[in-house]
Amino acid sequence: MAQLVNAPPKYSTFEWHNSNNKNFNSAEQERASAERLQSESKRLTDETDEITRFTQEDVNKKLAQRLRELNFWKDEVQSQLQSVDNEIETLLKYKSNLENSLESTEHPQSVTTSCLTYRKGREGIDLVQDDVEINLLKEVEVIEGVRAVLMRTLEQTVEQIRRLRSAKYFLQKDVADKNAAISIDNNCHTLSNKDSEIHLFENVTQDLVSAVMPADWSNYSDANIKKAECEKQASVTLRSVINGVIDQTRNDLINQCRNVDLALKKRVEECSNAKERLIDHLEKVEVEIENMEGNISRLKAAIDEKLAPLKVAHTRLAHRSQRPNIELTKDPAQYQLVSEVKMIENSIAALESQLEASEASLKGLIRNQIDLKEDIRIKTKSLHIDKVLCQDLRATIDYSHY
């Protein structure tokens, strides 16, 4: 059997009016709330638009201000970097000057050492510690002192160049960082709401742990500039010192070189004069030797000439001593013969004494001749050492490129 469907409940007119009023009131409330919400939304939208626009404009201003600050400090750092770079180039030239000066002392040092070695080859009385040797030893001392000063100054210069390059490195790094920052902030400054490159990123508002405060940021560049300026001033001072060192050492070397050359010139003149006097004396001695040899020859001839008369007188006396008996008388002839023998013997004795003195004198002259020749040989060798070896070698010393 078919089931009967229950009829829906029926409401009263009051309920119908009440329901309608309720719906009307609810709709009116919702509509009023919606209108208020729409008005509030419009107000909030306008307000947030204005705040967003103002905030974005403020950010743009701050980015522009930041760019001006970045460019200002970049220009300051860049200017100091260029100044430091110029100072490095200048100091490198001074370093090259020091190296050239140091190299310029090598040849004079070798020449001075060679001169001292050559002069050790002098002989006899000429092996004397004269003014030349004293000044050569002083020149060795001066050159060694100059080289020590130059090397010490060169080491200081190398260290100062290192310090300047260190300052340059930090300036370059600062400029590079600022250029990167300028590029980033400039790109940020030019971004607009219509750019296609804008995106949403996660965690972009998180605090930057490694970030520095603005005061620290400006102090960093200022410290780099001040450090570079300090090193630059130290370099300028060092350059002044280098000029003074080079000038003073050049003067010391030239003055001592001049002292050696003057002493050597004087010594050569003294040795030449001594040699000339020795040659003059040698010529005179050789003349005397020749004269003395002639004198000795004449004395020997005179002695030989006296032997025959002596033999005649001796023979006469011997024969007359054979006279017989009463004939063996001391007559005048006998006295005269005895007197003749004594006179001839005295003459021969005198001649032999003179011959002995002459031969002794000849030996003395010959010894003097040998000594003079030896001294002349020594002087000739000394002159060759001082004039040919030393003076010619020292003529190659040139401090014009010092």
**Inertia-based shape:** rod-shaped
- Report how far the terminal alpha carbons are from each other: 139 Å
The largest pleated sheet is described as: none
Rg result = 62 Å
List the helices and strands and how they pair.
Blueprint: H1 13-104, H2 106-119, H3 131-190, H4 214-320, H5 332-394
Helix pairs in contact: 1-3, 1-4, 2-3, 2-5, 3-4, 4-5
Describe the structure.
With 402 residues, the chain is an all-alpha fold. The chain contains 5 helices and no strands. It has helices spanning 13-104, 106-119, 131-190, 214-320, 332-394. The protein is rod-shaped. The model has no long low-confidence stretch (mean pLDDT 90).
Structure, briefly:
By secondary structure, the chain is mainly alpha-helical. It contains 5 helices and no strands. Helix 2 runs antiparallel to helix 5.
